[in-house]
Amino acid sequence: MTEPGPEPEKAPEAAAKTEPEPEPEPAPAPEPEAEAEPPAEPKPEPHAETTPHATAGEDTPQESPAPDDKTHTGGTSGDTDTEGEAEAPAANDPHAADGENTPQESPAPDDKTRTGDAGGNTDAEGEDAAPKPKPATPLAKVKSRAPALAAAYKAATATLRKKNLTGTRAKLYLVLDRSASMRPYYKDGSAQALADQALALAAHLDADPAVHVVFFSTEVDGTTDLTLAPGHDTKIDDVHAGLGRMGRTSYHAAVAAVLDHHDNHHGSHRDHRAPALVVFQTDGAPDAKTPATQALTEAAETHPDVFFSFVAFGDHDNKAFDYLRKLKTPNASFFHAGPTPRELTDAELYEGVLADWRP
Questions:
Q1: Angle between helical axes of 150-162 and 190-205 (0-180°, round to 10)
Q2: Measured in whole angstroms, how far is the alpha carbon of residue 225 from the centre of its chain?
Q3: pLDDT for res 266
Q4: pLDDT band for position 71 (cuts 50, 70, 90)
Q5: 220-227/210-216 β-pairing
Q6: Cα gap 192→232, rounded to integer Å
Q7: Of 12-16, 175-179, 286-290, 335-339, where does mean pLDDT reach its minimum?
Q8: Distance of alpha carbon 103 from alpha carbon 94, whole angstroms
Q9: Contacts of 4 (CB under 8 A, 6+ apart)
Q10: For residues 197 and 187, what is the distance between their CA atoms, to the nearest angstrom?
């Protein structure tokens, strides 16, 4: 009966032998866990790098690079980082490739605006590069031919610039009153000084400056031409001395003489005539007001390119100048030079003469 006792001792040995066999069983248990983890990690990486169609599943991690790339693109075309940020949501949508054109409409006008601005700057540069208006006769030529006119020429330069008349081309006429009351103004050189100022102004307006001078009283007493030549500074006194008796004040005779000369020398048809500025000097009202008014009114209709700038010598309270003050024709202006016109500066004279002239 003792023999059956050891048999149960062998049973535990068998059990012990069988126990080590399940030891490998726990090893497979972790293997499925390892198998579940690795497929999740390596598979997305190759799909993101190698498979172009895998971006649909990986849109979320690629959101940050997408706006960066578009920001750089926007920088090349529109130079706006904010525009790239605004386009980021459209980049996340895989179907928004066509929709991305819509947000790009804003950079397009920006680009056009910049192009337009650049174009505007180009135009501005073109305007700067364009030749600026210049006097018809340069100062150097005036100095070489009539140096005494240099100061008056410079004063005319400043006044024309102020009036936006630099570069204007026109013929200049000078009308001088030879009524008896004008005698003192010829004696003190006022008439000659006005002629010099007119010639300096003509140098700005005409490449071959020549001032046609009309002396008038009861009729036209005589004419002469002033040019940039020796003797211009005594020409008025010399011609006046040879004209004889001084008469009355007939404006209409002088107006007609100017218009006839302009038609004969500068084109009879208005489309072919150069504009003309007439410095019309007088020391009183016309003796015959109706013919004077009629002559100026008709001149405005037939010769709208001829402008009469009246310059009055005499007292400021002289009622005779009421005629000129009240003159309403569109082709005339009035400037009162006062009883001592020689005391006016060149600039003051030009300011008065050019105040209303707009050729």
A1: 60
A2: 38
A3: 85
A4: very low
A5: antiparallel
A6: 9
A7: 12-16
A8: 15
A9: none
A10: 18
- 294 vs 329: CA distance, rounded Å: 10
182-215 per-position pLDDT tens digit: 999 999 999 999 999 999 999 999 999 999 999 9
Nearest to 100 by CA among 112, 115, 88: 88
| DSSP-assigned letters across all residues of 86-130 | HHHHHHHSTT-TTGGGTGGGTHHHHHHHHHHHHHHHHHHHHHHHS
- For the segment 120-148, the average pLDDT, to the nearest whole number, is 79
Tell me the whole-structure pTM to 2 decimals: 0.65
CB 278 within 8 A of CB 309: yes
Structure tokens at 154: 């410079």
Residues 6+ apart with CB under 8 A from 39: none
Q: What is the CA 89 to chain-centroid distance, rounded?
A: 45
C-beta neighbour count of 154 within 10 angstroms: 15
The residues that bridge with 172 in the sheet, in sequence order, are 277
Q: Cα separation of 172 and 210, whole Å?
A: 8
